[in-house]
Amino acid sequence: MNVQDIRRRLESIVGRTVERIGVSKKRQQELMGAVEPGMQPSGSEPEAGPAVEAMRLGVVEAGSTWFFAADASSETAERTAFRIASDRLDPALRELIALLVQTSAVDHSAPSLQEEETEAQQLGRWLADRLESGEAPHELPDTLRLKSRLFTEMIPFLLIYEGAQSSIGGYEELHQLLSTFLEREVRVVPLREREWLLLVDRLDVLDLSEERGEGDESDRELLEAFGLGLYELIASEWAGIFNLSVSEPLQPAHGLVPALRILRESVFLGKTFHVTRHVHLPWELDLERLIYSIPGEQRERFMERIEGRAVVLADSETLATLTTFFQMNCNVSETAKQLYIHRNTLIYRLDKVKQETGLDVRNFSDAVSMKLALLLDKVTKD
């Protein structure tokens, strides 16, 4: 098993960062010397000394626990170890980690970038074919060589480039840019000429520390922040228009096709309803998804019932005011601050909308009707 695969599996088990370190023979002796008396568990073989047994179950030193792997090559000068920044691992958890590390022979021969690209292209072609045909298999087939490395939790991002001419580099350039940005491995899967699936290890994006408090950002807020940073990185490196969508964590070996279909749909809905945005979050587009599914005749019938809508929707200032008002959760003070206008000026504009349409957007029911009208107007125009 590849070193990175073992590291990712360990991180998914312990919920914290795991560091892979090559340990020299001298350093191994130092760690064995750090073994505390009495660490040998009951029932262990009498010929297995406490130091040897502790090396198997993990050596605790300076607030960290070290687990040593069974290297595939005994001739290597160093031995592979995985360091976990915790000295309070549950004994049952240590047994589980030791079992995984010891039974997974470490393969130091990582695939070349060309081999990785070939595997990614194979997966990309298979995914593109499934999306084109409308199929939605839950599991990836065993014939895909990349499948064995897609059982850990990852976060899928869909990157789509739009423009007359492509200024973005190929697989190698994009892979290098993203890996440098994250300082970790990123799987880049080309789907079409200007469309890429990006798979990022969950622990590289979300803070799974037990120390996270109630006031900290939620997982979805962290995903949004990471997606915005990723978009800014790519947009600053290459010219052109990019759209990015992000899904919640999953095991890519299971459920990748349905998740990818939702990501594509999210980009489409985001471009339709929110033309100024470039990062589209599926969980924020539920209302837009519902509205787009309404037949055209019913959309027009609803719009006709709102008197004066044409005047309101044709005025850019009023439109911007209503959009910001809804973004600020109908809070008058926050909306005025966001628009850099006096509170009385905002109230005047809202009263003007009420006068034209009969809808007072400070009232919940009327606010819902106006919000629907704003969204329906965008798809009715199309």
TrEMBL record:
InterPro entries: CdaR-like_regulators (IPR051448), Homeodomain-like_sf (IPR009057), PucR_C-HTH_dom (IPR025736), PucR_C-HTH_sf (IPR042070). SUPFAM superfamilies: Homeodomain-like. Residues 319-375 form the PucR C-terminal helix-turn-helix domain. Transmembrane segments: none annotated. This is PucR family transcriptional regulator. It comes from Saccharibacillus brassicae.
